[in-house]
Amino acid sequence: MVDGRHPTCNFLLEVERDQVECLRRLREEAAADTNKGHNRSLNSTTGCKGDWDNIACWERAEIGETITIPCPRVLKTVFGRNGNISRNCTSAGWSEVFPNISSVCGADTSQHKLVFYIVVRTLYTLGHSLSLIALTTGTAILCLFRKLHCTRNYIHLNLFFSFILRAVAVLVKDDILFNRTSQCSNQPSLVGCKASLVFFQYFIMANFFWLLVEGLYLHTLLVVIFSENRHFVVYMFIGWGAKV
Questions:
Q1: Cα separation of 23 and 16, whole Å?
Q2: How far apart, in whole angstroms, are the C-alpha atoms of residue 218 and residue 136?
Q3: Domain 7-105, CATH 2.40.280.10 — does that match?
Q4: Residues near 154 by Cβ (< 8 Å), separated by ≥ 6?
Q5: Which residues pair with residue 87 across a beta bridge?
Q6: Could you report how far apart the first and last alpha carbons of the chain are, in Å?
Q7: Which pTM was predicted?
Q8: Phi, psi of 52 (to 5 degrees)
Q9: Is domain 110-241 classified as CATH 3.90.1150.10?
């Protein structure tokens, strides 16, 4: 079967699995130590307790001890780098991870790429939002003033509407794909994701077909002499239904 889940969802689910495995292993080790009479339960007041730091699993350590582990499995899968990270157990608790986990287990340029993609996404989201406001205003004007009601403006109105739906589809698609990763495990069928992409592609096609209708209408005005209201139903079919 092909995995249709978003890559971010896959990453988060892998991290969740590692967390469950880590906590299970730490509980088993604590129970084993308690049974042996070493008094190393999870509530022990000496040393540093076993810890899950949201990406890596650290076993219990005594004060002054340094724990070194390989790069977390999920980071190896994503970046393919093999390295080691460490933490010191001090009287104040666990130290910070050293060396920096991003430089050892990740990609040095990943942060710069992430910032670039965030900036690009912010700019095109702002552009779509401003376009949506302008198109909605233009559509309202064409609808409110009866003197503007004619076949030519009806075609303009549908073209504006296709642009509006295209912008809305882009914003909804981004919201579903990128802002709801916390719900990945609750949406195994990805119905919302698939539906948003279907509507997104449909509105793009409708947008181009209404541009075609604009060209056809101008052509008929210049070449063919007939009543302009007669073929508006045909234009509606081309604009919204010819691609189905």
A1: 11
A2: 24
A3: no
A4: 232
A5: 67
A6: 28
A7: 0.49
A8: -110, 115
A9: no
Residues 204/128, Cβ–Cβ less than 8 Å: no
Separation between Cα atoms, residue 197 and residue 174, nearest integer Å: 10
Domain positions in the chain are 7-105, 110-241
Q: What is d(CA 229, CA 231) in angstroms, rounded to the nearest whole number?
A: 6
CA angle 167, 124, 182 (to 5 degrees): 80
Structure tokens at 32: 């084993």
CA dihedral 157, 158, 160, 161 (to 10 degrees): 120
CA 169/CA 4 separation, integer angstroms: 20
Kind and range of the H or E run holding 66:
strand 66-70
Q: What is the pLDDT along the chain (244 residues), one digit of tens a residue?
A: 444 555 666 777 888 888 899 989 888 887 776 666 544 444 445 778 888 888 889 888 888 899 999 988 888 877 777 889 999 998 888 998 888 887 888 755 445 555 777 788 788 889 888 988 998 998 898 888 888 888 888 888 999 999 999 989 888 887 776 655 445 545 445 677 778 888 888 999 999 998 888 888 887 776 664 455 556 677 777 777 755 5
Query: Which tokens belong to 149?
Result: 């009601």
Spatial distance between the Cα atoms of 167 and 139, rounded to a whole number of angstroms: 14
Report which of 223, 224, 218, 188 is spatially closest to residue 6, judged by C-alpha positions. Answer: 188
What does the alpha-carbon distance between residue 106 and residue 103 come to, in Å, rounded to a whole number?
A: 6
